[in-house]
Amino acid sequence: MGAPIQIEQLSHRFHTRDPWVLEALSLEIASGESVAIIGESGCGKSTLLHMLAGLTLPSAGQVRIGGRTVQRPDAAWNMMFQRPGLYPWLNVRQNVALGLQFTGQTDSLKTRVAEMLALVDLADKAEAPIGDLSGGQQQRVALARSLAVGPEIILLDEPFSALDAFTRRNLQLEVSQIARDQGITLVLVTHDIDEALTMGDRVVVMGRAPGTFRSVLPVDLPYPRNPMQPAFGRQREALMARFRDSVAPQTTRDQPAPTPDHAQLELAHG
Ligand SMILES: Nc1ncnc2c1ncn2[C@@H]1O[C@H](COP(=O)(O)OP(=O)(O)OP(=O)(O)O)[C@@H](O)[C@H]1O
After folding, report:
1. For a 10 Å CB count at each end of the chain, is N or C smaller?
2. Which ligand 1 atom is the nearest neighbour of the CA of 47?
3. Cα separation of 64 and 27, whole Å?
4. Pfam families in the record, alphabetically (predicted)?
């Protein structure tokens, strides 16, 4: 099952004399919801994701997951990166088992690993060395390893960007489906607008210098999403317009960033 995430007035700078990288970010993400984050390069998307994962602590504000303030990484909050981060000297089955071993969930380890490999369609590769797998298959192994521990949250930092278009599309649909089936809360950072619209219940558009939430677009499309459909095209246009706005400088620098509620209101009123 998933957990809700609350981002509360989150601000960050890496050193006290540096400019702020993130400024007053606030957002509530419901348990089991899927939120995609897009924004210009350098706007602070990865920094934000690291804070959700407990890998970086904010200079001000806080992140709460399931009501608890995030202060360190937790096995229940799983992060997946562009590179799958597998151990090449272990085979597929052993890599998938790692998370379970680290968290001491070894009772039904064999069955759980087999279930996860079946889920990501790699049952026949259980004994294969990692080096024999394609990039997409390696990401599936990383996904199986993440899912094995029964995570509440999966944080994805451009996880499919190194893959070919066909594999990328399949994984977008599969990960989205699995997260929905298992009620896992998903936060995805991406540069790919179609990926954001394929996987997100909402898409957050960030502005930069400092990073702020400039707008939030609810994606009103049934799953599985198909970029070829006209309704998808209309959402793409709406999101592109918001992205263009986010790149434009803010008119009144001293004003606080709009909250997601303001942004949704703005959308509802056209
Ligand atoms: N460890 C660090 N120390 C100092 N500055 C950092 C550090 N990590 C990131 N930054 C700065 O913080 C800002 C945001 O970086 P971040 O990687 O979060 O952006 P991003 O939106 O994920 O970028 P991209 O889309 O290019 O991956 C950038 O200006 C970057 O140079």
Report:
1. C
2. 18
3. 11
4. ABC_tran
